Amino acid sequence: MTMETSGYILRIDDVRQQYGQKVVLNDVHLSLKAGEFLSVVGPSGCGKSTLLRLVTGEEWPTAGRVMLNGQIIQRPGPDVGVVYQHYSLFPHLTALENIMAGERLRRWPQPIQGMLDLVSGEARRSRAEVQDEAMRFLDRARMSGHGDKYPHQLSGGQRQRVAIIQALMQHPKVLCMDEPFSALDPGTREDMQMFLLELYELLRMTVLFVTHDLEEAVYLGTRLVALSQFYTGEDGVQSGATLGAQIVTDRHLREIGVALAPGVKASAETGRLIQEIRREAFDPSYCQHVDTFTLHHKDSWHPEEDDET
Amino acid sequence: MRPPELFGLFAVPRRLTSVVLIILPFIAVIALYWIASDIRLADNPQDKLLPSFRQMGDAVWRMAFEPDVRTGTYLWWADTFASLRRLAIGLSLSAMTALFLGLNVGMFPGLRFLCLPFLTVVSIIPPLSILPILFITVGVDEVAKIVLIYIGTVFLMTRDMTLTTTAIPREQVTKALTLGASELGVVYRVIMPQVMPRLINALRLSLGAAWLFLIAAEAIVATEGLGYRIFLVRRYLSMDVILPYVAWITLLGFTIDWLLRMAVRRFYPWYARQGS
Ligand SMILES: Nc1ncnc2c1ncn2[C@@H]1O[C@H](COP(=O)(O)OP(=O)(O)OP(=O)(O)O)[C@@H](O)[C@H]1O
Ligand SMILES: [Mg+2]
Question: What atom in ligand 1 is closest to the CA of residue A210?
Fold first, then answer.
């Protein structure tokens, strides 16, 4: 295939995804360069997780193509790593075993895998090498003392750190993350963001990061797209939620490989950016329910009074 | 202010109280029996309905520690061994079937359509109603009893395993595949270890049914076994043998259940409390 030459590692071409009659994604185009950190935001239920499932290969698009290095993605495989909000770790394995899980699973069933290796002539890293890397990662995640704990014995943040390492051990071409930090408290969350950026700088991996937190999206990404079911089509018709979501914003935020100090989250520029994105993708005029609230206290917001002024 | 000791939704019994509460019903039943038996025996020393603990002790001694005059075996132990052997073979066969069938049916949609509706229908057949068919087809010896235990337990366990497998989050499958596992690797290296403790728990729940079918089969045809003995001595109204046998079966059942519970704790320490 010739797509290789385009310089993009991941291409989502004209993708449409529908379940029965319900259209979730409508005509989504997205190309990702190697090393890009793409934040994906959007209103709840707009299809962010659906997009991610197309990239991991869990689902096939109704129409269009999802390609990794010019190859259509067929199945979940080691080229794409994933980290979820929950259930990323295997509950029956300890932290270290979880990190080494790829190594164990790849070699099973042993005789068959051995023969396949011989045929393909692909050299596998030795177990000792893998163990070495696992220990280094564990150290970097400040988890060296916790290697033999089970997931249920770890805190939420520790669990996600292990999950990230587990995925990175495979050196995936693209790392997909679906709201990985959404269940964490603000302190742990910032900690995790730093940890992720540290790894991003170190490994120069390509990341697809879904979040519903705009601040997080702006802070982490080198590029940001917003997916939304609320947009005005070419014919000037407002979609409501019937047509399926499209990419409504695509912003370059900073150079590939650059990570900023967490302080920028508080800056005026970040605030402005967030407001703009909110207007573009989460425009309240489409959210019909807003003026149906009834608040009674005299100092509360009363939508009707707003109208009069 | 202390929370209430005994009554209400918020009762917090002290340690001693809780121990007393646990023992109380056992003591009460034994005491009640003792009194009733004493009254009846005082009335008529030949009465067989409620033998004294002494009479039962004698019977146990005779059955367990003196060789039987006719066969030369220690009946108590021979019966126990025969019954436990049937139980073990029948239950392990159905546990293995349940594991492999449940796992694969739960994981592969193709197999699910092929097997699940069929299994659901077949599982409704009352096992005892096909006992005569078993006797006719496989004969009245060991095989029939083992097959009865097998049929009596395998469907419930298989369904339990299927449900357990399908309840495992989809994320785990994707995750394993992205770590380089093959499809079989996902099923046997990722999902199977996760359903193992549940299999043991399903086994514990099936023990009751297994005993029921074992004793039913032994009551009808057998030459040895705990159920066989109970129904044999019933003809002589030997309550002094029947009651200790029932107590022994209860103790065996309790012990097996406890051992299985300990096995889960020991071999699957992650099972009791897992979050995500
Ligand atoms: N397998 C499916 N069958 C039918 N509808 C589905 C299926 N999967 C997702 N949907 C629908 O598609 C829409 C998008 O779901 P998706 O989970 O991708 O949203 P999301 O953007 O990730 O939302 P959230 O922010 O809540 O995670 C939802 O309306 C959902 O009900
Ligand atoms: Mg989602």
Answer: 22
> How far is B1 from B4, CA to CA, in rounded Å?
9
Nearest to A151 by CA among A214, A86, A199, A200: A86
Strands A174-178 and A80-83: parallel
Mean pLDDT across the stretch A236-241?
Answer: 59
Ligand 1 atom nearest to A43, measured from its CA: 25
Asked if residue A22 has its Cβ within 6 Å of ligand 1, the reply is yes
Which one, of A231, A125, A113, lies nearest residue A171 by Cα?
A125
Residues of A in contact with B179 (CB under 8 A): 78, 101-102, 105-106, 166-167, 170
Question: Cis ω on the peptide bond leading into residue A109 (within 30° of 0)?
Answer: yes
Q: For position A122, what pLDDT does the model report?
A: 62
Cβ–Cβ < 8 Å for A277, A41: yes
Task: Note residues around ion ligand 2 (Cβ under 5 angstroms).
Answer: A 49
The pair of three-digit structure tokens given for residue B56, joined into one six-digit string: 């039962």
List pLDDT tens digits, range A188-199: 999 899 999 999
What span, in angstroms and rounded, lies between the C-alpha atoms of A281 and B164? 40
Torsion of CA B60, B63, B66, B71, to 10 degrees: 180
Question: Any idea which ligand is nearest the CA of A46?
Answer: 1
Average pLDDT over residues B25-34: 96
End-to-end CA distance of chain A: give it in Å, rounded.
61
Phi-psi region of A204 (alpha: psi -120 to 50; beta: other; left: phi over 0): left
d(CA A304, ligand 1 centre) in Å:
34
Per-residue 3-state assignment (H helix, E strand, C coil) for B60-71: HHHHHHCCCCCC
- Residue B204's H or E segment, with its range, is helix B192-220
For residue A29, what pLDDT is reported? 92
Assess contact for A18 and A244: CB atoms under 8 A: yes
Q: Which residue is associated with the tokens 């994604």?
A: A25
Q: Supply the residue whose CA is at minimum distance from atom 18 of ligand 1.
A: A47
In ligand 1, the atom with minimum distance to the C-alpha of A51 is 18
Judge contact between A48 and A137, C-beta under 8 A.
Answer: no
- Complete edge-to-edge strand list for the sheet that includes strand A71-72: A22-33, A8-19, A63-68, A71-72
Closest chain B CA to residue A108: B185
**Count of alpha carbons within 13 Å of B238, Cβ hemisphere only?**
19
- pTM of the predicted model as reported, rounded to 2 decimal places: 0.87
Task: Look at B235 and A3; give whichever has higher pLDDT.
Answer: B235
Q: Which of chain A's residues have a Cβ under 8 Å away from the Cβ of B182? A: 108-109
Is some CB atom of chain A closer than 8 A to the CB atom of B70? Answer: no
CA distance A295 to chain B (A): 38
- Cβ contacts of A89 on chain B, cutoff 8 Å: 276
Residue pair B263/B200 in contact (Cβ under 8 Å)? The answer is yes
Measured CA distances, A114 to A120, A129, A192, A287 (Å): 10, 18, 38, 57
- ipTM of the complex in this document: 0.87
pLDDT at residue A3 in the model: 43
pLDDT in tens, A18-42: 999 889 998 899 999 999 999 999 9
